[in-house]
Amino acid sequence: MGQEVFSGIWLPLVTPFAGGEVDHGALRRLVAHYRGSGIAGLVVCGSTGEAAALDEAEQLAVLDAVLEEAGGLPVMMGLAGFNQRQVLARLARLNERPLAGLLTPAPCYVRPSQQGLLGYFSTLADHAAAPLVLYDIPYRTGIKIETATLLALAGHGNIRALKDCGGSLDSTQAVIDDGRLALLAGEDAQVLGTLCLGGRGAIIASAHVRPDLFVGLWRAVEAGRLAEARRLFRALAPVLSLLFAETNPGPLKALLARQGLLRDELRAPMTAASPALAEQLAAAYAALDGVRAPVAGA
């Protein structure tokens, strides 16, 4: 599977709950809702999917349901943990599924050295049937994957892309210039800037809201139509800001619940968005009604 697979707008899917349990009916409806929207693929059990609140059996059940409903749309699976033996055991079970990739952050809490990160990711890549997509998100893991480590890992044949939440413009540009890893924006507010720098796409929770506009933005940058891309980003900016005014995915689930796609329910200790923010989001979303993305190929 070549680097070109890791481009476009990928959607890190929320996990719906009902009465404390995974709502598989709503999950399947969500996949059906998004699979024809022009997105490049789905990411299951990332941070937006509240993966940390799901045990392994639940995660596998969510993944299997998504794979059944995806209709050929590529599916990437989150693989996170801080016990390498346990992560490898989970990886062996994931290897039985037809995955496009594995989204893999640094081990949280333990804060390994850069040499430790190099060994960790290389070991996972050695054992993985699907390509690894590195996930640099130091504000969640406690450790940044430094530029030199990213470039060293780019030499591994089964490490193909980076979801970039690292917060370093120099590192972002270095990975793009190196060219061996497809760089995917991970910070929603930075999607336009990252694409204009040469990023290949994005994995962003806000694409739940109007995937057609995000796909249109990506296509506009790819075609060099930057005025069109700026127009779409400016229209989306108020929603982007509100979606992260409280901890993700609380605001996102509040908005999706108003659209009838799921219940406004998260697993503790995560909490639902405040009523005031939910109202603001609903108004910002309504303001997008008249915004249209360009027709593909136009």
Walk me through the structure:
The chain is α/β, with parallel strands linked by helices and 298 residues long. It has a domain at 3-209: Aldolase class I (TIM Barrel, Alpha-Beta Barrel), CATH 3.20.20. It has helices at 24-34, 56-69, 84-94, 114-127, 138-141, 147-153, 169-178, 191-197, 211-222, 226-243, 250-258, 275-286; strands at 8-12, 17-18, 21-22, 41-44, 75-78, 101-105, 132-136, 159-164, 182-185, 201-203. Strands 1-4-5-6-7-8-9-10 form an eight-stranded parallel beta barrel, surrounded by five helices. The protein has a two-stranded antiparallel ribbon with strand order 2-3. The two termini are 29 Å apart.
Can you lay out the helices and strands and say which pair or pack?
Layout: E1 8-12, E2 17-18, E3 21-22, H1 24-34, E4 41-44, H2 56-69, E5 75-78, H3 84-94, E6 101-105, H4 114-127, E7 132-136, H5 138-141, H6 147-153, E8 159-164, H7 169-178, E9 182-185, H8 191-197, E10 201-203, H9 211-222, H10 226-243, H11 250-258, H12 275-286
Helix pairs in contact: 1-2, 4-6, 9-10, 10-12, 11-12
